[in-house]
Amino acid sequence: xxxxxxxxxxxxxxxxxxxxxxxxxxxxxxxxxxxxxxxxxxxxxxxxxxxxxxxxxxxxxxxxxxxxxxxxxxxxxxxxxxxxxxxxxxxxxxxxxxxxxxxxxxxxxxxxxxxxxxxxxxxxxxxxxxxxxxxxxxxxxxxxxxxxxxxxxxxxxxxxxxxxxxxxxxxxxxxxxxxxxxxxxxxxxxxxxxxxxxxxxxxxxxxxxxxxxxxxxxxxxxxxxxxxxxxxxxxxxxxxxxxxxxxxxxxxxxxxxxxxxxxxxxxxxxxxxxxxxxxxxxxxxxxxxxxxxxxxxxxxxxxxxxxxxxxxxxxxxxxxxxxxxxxxxxxxxxxxxxxxxxxxxxxxxxxxxxxxxxxxxxxxxxxxxxxxxxxxxxxxxxxxxxxxxxxxxxxxxxxxxxxxxxxxxxxxxxxxxxxx
Amino acid sequence: xxxxxxxxxxxxxxxxxxxxxxxxxxxxxxxxxxxxxxxxxxxxxxxxxxxxxxxxxxxxxxxxxxxxxxxxxxxxxxxxxxxxxxxxxxxxxxxxxxxxxxxxxxxxxxxxxxxxxxxxxxxxxxxxxxxxxxxxxxxxxxxxxxxxxxxxxxxxxxxxxxxxxxxxxxxxxxxxxxxxxxxxxxxxxxxxxxxxxxxxxxxxxxxxxxxxxxxxxxxxxxxxxxxxxxxxxxxxxxxxxxxxxxxxxxxxxxxxxxxxxxxxxxxxxxxxxxxxxxxxxxxxxxxxxxxxxxxxxxxxxxxxxxxxxxxxxxxxxxxxxxxxxxxxxxxxxxxxxxxxxxxxxxxxxxxxxxxxxxxxxxxxxxxxxxxxxxxxxxxxxxxxxxxxxxxxxxxxxxxxxxxxxxxxxxxxxxxxxxxx
Lengths: 420, 420
Known about the structure:
Two copies of one chain form a homodimer.
Chain A: H1 8-19, H2 35-50, E1 54-57, E2 63-67, E3 76-82, H3 95-110, E4 119-124, H4 137-143, H5 148-151, H6 161-167, E5 183-191, H7 196-200, E6 204-210, E7 212-221, E8 225-226, H8 238-255, E9 263-273, E10 279-280, E11 283-292, H9 295-315, E12 319-329, E13 332-333, H10 336-348, E14 353-358, H11 363-367, E15 373-378, H12 394-414
Parallel strand pairs in A: 3-4, 3-5, 5-15, 6-14
Antiparallel strand pairs in A: 1-2, 2-4, 6-13, 6-15, 7-11, 7-12, 8-10, 9-11
Helix pairs in contact in A: 1-3, 1-12, 3-12, 8-9, 10-12
């Protein structure tokens, strides 16, 4: 194996150049389907071609740069992530993984070498929530998880997702032309978006699982009444029910802290009515975000949320009028064969590493449906993400890209060898 | 004493006629300073004149109908309440007490008799929250509790309260011309706005105290972060702090339930940020409504709220960034001499009565600063108030008005007698 080395400052420079292509009034913003996003992709495609990749956009709107392999192998090694952002997001979420793929291609070109397999660097379309109300559009498409009802969704301007795909250059081929069964392995580098690596002073995190997510709507119906004239015993206070539910859910999580499988739950949203200082709350609507790396645990905790909400309602003399699953995605396991290569690469580079569960959803979770997939995390300062404060040091990113490059080369070297 | 009797059906008819003067799109609404309110007052003034009262509007915007007494006594007996409503309020809150005064005057006229004292029937201006952000404007004015800074307040259209008073006919005399030191006794009939009389099947409630109210703003500052990637031990969840606070406050109230003095507290308002399903709440703003009939208890419970909020913040690893008194009114005691007359009147009429604390604020609380004041409650169906569902049966209202009339006559008969 040629001892080619990634160029940390080139890689960092590209990252910052792409990040600067932001809506000027709200850095750092490059929403999918926006002109700014198209501008970012033009920049990306130009860089891809400079480093020797042939660019195209597939039927699910993914921008792909491809380098043929040195051997006539039918399967591809894919590296990438996404270039869209949330509104007012950061400079790393998504593009770090795309630029890492670009840097790998550049390093190969510099060394006048290739992988044995074809290499594809991919920028998935619309990983973040967007105007069509559907995230991970490109990776869904590649995994065969983009159905007709999704394509029929419209944005607030009345444009369908199907039309939106055409507008970003996906062409008019059937969208399932994007489905891939020829990927030997998919690697995604991403910022952690959490504080664990920083807190434990680890260089890289090897993702073992990506959580599945259940969103539940919980509604407590009590009785709005006068804050001064309603005796304690006659109150049907929906906020008191909510408070008990939030506390009991938190206690249930404390009870299983640090145990397997990984489970976390958050009440991030609450709306009470009438929400007036002198009126006892008559209604409370909460959203519960429940995550686990284990499908059975997700089911069991959905039941537990329902039971806790029911008990809190009974204790506060209100009615649990709704406890409904709004959306559900399943947990995805990263491929052990690929994780082994990431661990070995980090080890060879003398880096501090740990296995980690991704509490956030990623394109890799969809790719895992059609290909062995792996993820590598680099530290996020303060765990901040989806924020203008998002930050990873250049040296931290460099260690991640170096690990990724080494793992890709190890994998490429070992995979699809003819057995004797 | 002439055995004149109030006319229940006339009284009910007037109540419904005035109630019908509502904004048609949102019954029952007659906001202070609105054209509808002026229309209601024109109707009221016409009825006052029909029953022999001379009408005027004082310097604080109160509509007053006056009947001279049969003796040359310098002090006045006053009866009334307010004709304004909240938006989407009911048909009883306020006008029941004004119509009761009108019915007393009508009954006296019918019997061709008068009180010994002058009788004044009053419709206080703007008891409910209104566009100037100040309630009980008229009764404040009569009690000398309307200061220059209040008069300088402006509504959203930029009109000052001083100008607003002129617009309702208060004239341009100094507002302290409304202050009265000649009231021998003030009587206010009002619906309970709570469920106690109905639950205990009592006909009338004799109010002993009107609560003082403290409004406190409580703000918890945590850290907004990713719902999936932030471990339990690193969360600074402002909603978890809020939940603990709401539960602990409720438990503190349960611990003193049915004890003296009366204390009640409600968290009626909560706003969290960013209030998104997948983000740990970074900030929560709550409003606490604290009421007691005892000034010392209000102070002690203000301290307790602060302590509970501080403890909840510490337990959730967030900061209590604010715990501030937004507004404060002091408890008012009803005059025992007047309450005795109400109890005796109810007794003579064979009614079921109980003493009761008013958990709501009333004009009588301001009048109590300048005159012996008393309140009489009639039942509210389901305890509902500030609602289109507000209801009191005609017979229940009739019993209340009869009690009030009898008590007023007893008081008038005994008060300001020359001692031998």
